[in-house]
Amino acid sequence: MDISLSYTEAGDKTGDGIPLIFLHGNGEDSSYFAGQLKYFKNSYHIYAIDTRGHGNSPRGTKPFTLVQFAEDLLCFMDEHGIQKAHLLGFSDGANIAILFALTHQERAAKLILNGGNIFPHGMKFTVWLSVVLGYRFAVCSAKKDADAKKKAELFSLMANEPQLSTEDLKKITVPTLVIAGTHDMIKKKHTRLIAESIRGAKLVFIPGSHFVAAENPGLFNEAVEVFLKE
Question: Which residues of 76-90 are buried (b: 16+ CB within 10 A; e: fewer)?
Answer without folding.
Answer: bbeeeebeebbbbbb
